[in-house]
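I'll show a sample.
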Amino acid sequence: MVWEKYKGPVKLVVLDTAGTICDGPQDLRHIWPEDDGLGVKAPVVPFYETLKKWGVTLDWTTIRKPMGLFKKDHLRALLETPEAKRQFREKHNRDWNEDDLDEMFEHYKGILNEVIVHPELAKPIPGAVEVINKLRESGKLIGNTTGYTKEASAKLNKLLEKEYGIKFDFAAVPEIVKAGRPYPWMIMKHMEELDVYPPLAVVKVGDTKYDIEEGKNAGVWTIGLYATGNNNYEDLASANPDYLVPSISDILPIIVSDITNLTNVQELLNPLFCKAHSL
C-alpha cells in the first residue's frame, strides 16, 4: 500500500466532542443527583430520564457502557440489557419493540438538545482551546466526529464557536454517512471533504474505545484520553490506541513532534508499537 511509505506531517486532527473537548469530569450532583462525577454527562442525563419515563431505571455506570455509539444504537443496547428487558416487561406486560425504540429516541433527542448546551457541560476541558489553537497555528486541519445526532451536534458546535472560538473545518455525524462508530466512514468523510490523504496523515482523538476502533478501522493514528471522559485507562488500553494520555492538553507534542518524526512507518505494523503514556 502506498501510504505505508508516507513520511510527511499530520495534516488533519479529528476530535471527539464530549469528554475530549468539553463536558469533562466535575461534580454536578446539585443539578443531577445521580451524577457520578465523570465526564460525558450530556448523553447520560437524557438516557436516564427517557428510560425512567418508560418505567426503566438504570444506573449511570450501566448507561455509560455503550458510550461512543450513535445515540439510537446506544439506546438500543441499553434496552437489550437483561435488567432493562425485565423492567420494561414488568411495566408494560410485554417486550419492547422497534416502535418503542423510535418513540423513546424522539423523546431522548428533545432532552439532549437542551442538556447538550448546558453551560456546565458545554464549557471546554482545561487546555482544549489552547491546544486546538496551537494545532491550527501549526497548519493542522481540525475535524470532529461524534455519536450525537445531527441537530444536537450542530447546536453544540455553534455554541463552541460562538463562546469559545472552537471551529471545525468539517464535522461529521452518523446520520450523514453509512454508519457511525466503530465504522470508519465519518473519518473517511473528513478525508474526502478536506482532501486529506493518506490515512497516516490523520489522527483521531477520543475518550471511548469506539473512538479508537473508529480510528483504527480507518487506518489513522489514534490517541486515547483516559482522565476526562467516559472510559478509564484500562478500557482504552484494551482498544490498543497508538498513544494513551490523560487529556487533550497532552496531545500537542505527540501530533506535532512524535508522529511527524516517525520516519520508519513500518513500525506502525509492529504489534509492540502501542505507546501507552502515563503522564
